[in-house]
Amino acid sequence: MRSTEIDLYHLTPREKCLASTQTPAGGVGLTCIICAFNEAPRIAAVLDVASAHPLVHELIVVDDGSTDNTAEIVKSYPTVKLISYPINQGKSHAMATGLAHAQGEFIMLLDADLKGLVANNIAALAAPVLSGVAGASLSLRKNSLLLFRAIGLDFVSGERVIKRELLSEVLTEIHGLPRFGIELFMNKQIIARQLPIAISYWPHVTQSRKTEKIGYWKGIRAEWRMLADLLQLDYPLVLVLQTIHLLSLRINTPAASAPLVSMKSLFVRWIRLGAN
Q1: pLDDT digits (tens, 9 = 90+) for 110-138
Q2: Assigned fold of 13-275
Q3: Domain edges within the chain
Q4: How many Cβ atoms from other residues are within 10 Å of residue 249's Cβ?
Q5: What is the predicted pLDDT for the residue at 209?
Q6: What are 152-204's pLDDT values in tens digits?
Q7: What does each C-alpha distance from 6 to 94, 123, 148 come to in angstroms?
Q8: What is the helix (H) or strand (E) element at residue 137, kind and residue range?
Q9: Is the distance from CB of 64 to CB of 36 less than 8 angstroms?
């Protein structure tokens, strides 16, 4: 990977140690997987940061049947491993493909359409899991839904760090998921193992909405199709309970800059939203 300079001001001493070396303690590697579909205008901004980061030892991009020049842009990064197939099959299938090729003991998942991503974001997302403080970490972006920001957790966040074993043992099940069901499936694995969750607050990072990418009406239809995929996996009440379970596993870490919300406060906010 190409070298880069990282501002370590907001990290703990342990996190600084992790971010200052190419190989974490014990020689354990971190594989970053990015699934992309027609992300040519956006993916370079993510690759510039991820491919140069000292914590990322392997970077895999799964081109999920793009019809633009996404693959050509990825090929311009010589250290990035590109996996392409001609037909779009959805994020769940693309993620399973990336996991099957990953070599690292730890997996970082990044969306291809992030804006404002910097090296510190990657370090803050990775450090709690690499150091053993947490079993999983999730991002909370600037433009995450208001409710998610209010409770301090985005249960469908596409930016995560986990141990590879969490998903490598269930790749067959992942291939059978709806096109956009991977995050909910991952949540179930985290809850089943009662893994402590660290939240990495990204106040300057946003994700491009589908309405920005493909136009308002096409974007709205795409968002509804994603929601339909989520509801194929669980009923709305089950999704709420899943979020509550995840909140119960959340831990406070030095990298977190937003206050935790109590379960009582969470319940009150949901009641008020329902009343409106």
Answers
A1: 999 999 999 999 999 999 999 999 999 99
A2: Spore Coat Polysaccharide Biosynthesis Protein SpsA; Chain A (3.90.550)
A3: 13-275
A4: 19
A5: 60
A6: 999 999 999 999 999 998 999 998 887 778 899 999 999 999 999 999 999 99
A7: 30, 9, 28
A8: strand 136-141
A9: yes
